[in-house]
């Protein structure tokens, strides 16, 4: 897709100055195509994914069109949420920074209406409002359409999702189609939107679509994990621990799931917060602020709530639930890897959902790679990989002569090979992922003579026949809790008040860990390595 420089768009010097100050290098594809057409006065349908700069696509033409000397309202932008209305108002305000006399005002539900009326009386050249509130003001005649020449429906798909269709139609019917310019922008184009455009836009409407291929987000590695419902949180925390992303966005399909997951992650000590449409605006503002400044590094959101999120350095997106709409997949993962940064997307897929994944891949023309769920041992591997990358850069950088001399000397004066030395350095660098204290203690205890057969360890369990426990109960608990095949569990010796059970050496630690909070027949048990016979 061809893009153009802002200089080629014939904008006023004031707008050019603002654009430069905002740091925009060149117009995005949707801006390149839409700005000239909207400026020509035509009715427009513009479609491009979230984050592609649709606001300026209509904001700049609006500013080119309005008369700063006229205090009356000349353009209305309808926006689905308070957050988006404020965000768009801020963007357009920035664009109008050097245009004296132009006032941009957001109006939305939830804000005290008398205060809004006062602000409106002060004059607003461009109003950006949620449909419900705009309707309200139209009825009170605190917003008048006498001088309005352009109406923009921004994020039209979201407005429909939020049930604003009737309000939109009412607002649009205030002015006859022929007497206004009607511009519509949306990330997706479901049928109801096209119905509205048919009804309310002129016959010669210009349709601009940034094609699906460009909808896909490059530069993003996408993975999926086959995860059972009950394991999702575990897998999520593991991935968070391993990849340690600076900011993460986790998507769920329901508000309830957002709440549940937020409290679960908080319970595990993560700086996580949820955001969704049921929350009070004040709460949402607080959560967003906390995410923006990094105090919260994991934000859990529904698709609708995420629409208002404009944060650039999200490093990882997790689809805790796969999106219900393929196109949402693109929007979700488009939240990471912005502005040329690399991003990653992790998808949790349970069983039959694999077909959904296939569809997404076909639709987005992208590859989502299967990944095994990382085990604790994988931390070391991942860390090593990272270190080796860094090492690679140091080698590329050269200037290693002095260091090579030292190593050479070491190799010549000792029995170590260069490989030994490199391996030792790597081990030292990985350091942090050594086994926990607890694991080390367990391994030490298991390494002693537990009186087991070759290749096995013998464990002591503090219940037995007197507690009406049968060998099958012990076998079931060990195999079930530690997730090892029953046939690998060895001899089970039961006594009145305790039992010995043998398990393969390599499972010793897993079993000890798994049995920690287990009850057998309602009784808490203690399991530890047995003493030698
Ligand atoms: P959309 O409405 O398509 O989701 P926005 O208009 O909200 O996207 O823009 C997303 C972000 O991209 C904003 O932070 C905006 O300032 C920025 N942006 C817009 N146009 C450009 C551009 N030409 N170059 C760089 N950044 C841009
Ligand atoms: Mg937008």
Quick recap of the structure?
With 533 residues, the chain is α/β, with parallel strands linked by helices. Helix content is 44%, strand content 16%.
Bound compounds, please?
A: adenosine-5'-diphosphate, magnesium ion
In total, the number of strands is 20
| Tally of separate helices | 22
Name the average pLDDT.
88
Main sheet: strands, sense, barrel = 7 strands, parallel
Global structural class: alpha/beta
Strand line-up across the major sheet: 3-4-2-5-6-1-7
What is the overall shape?
elongated
Query: N-to-C terminal Cα separation, in Å?
Result: 77 Å
Helix content: 40-55%
Alpha-carbon Rg, integer: 31 Å
Low-confidence stretches: 432-436
Please state roughly what percent of the residues sit in beta strands, choosing from under 5%, 5-15%, 15-25%, 25-35%, 35-45% or over 45%: 15-25%
Features:
single chain, 533 residues, alpha/beta, seven-stranded parallel β-sheet, 44% helix, binds adenosine-5'-diphosphate, binds magnesium ion
Tell me about this structure.
The chain is of the alpha/beta class. The protein has a seven-stranded parallel beta sheet with strand order 3-4-2-5-6-1-7, sandwiched between helices. Strands 10-11-9-12-13-8-14 form a seven-stranded parallel beta sheet, sandwiched between helices. Strands 16-17-15-20 form a four-stranded antiparallel beta sheet. 38% of the residues are buried. It binds adenosine-5'-diphosphate and magnesium ion. The site of magnesium ion has 4 residues, from helix 3.
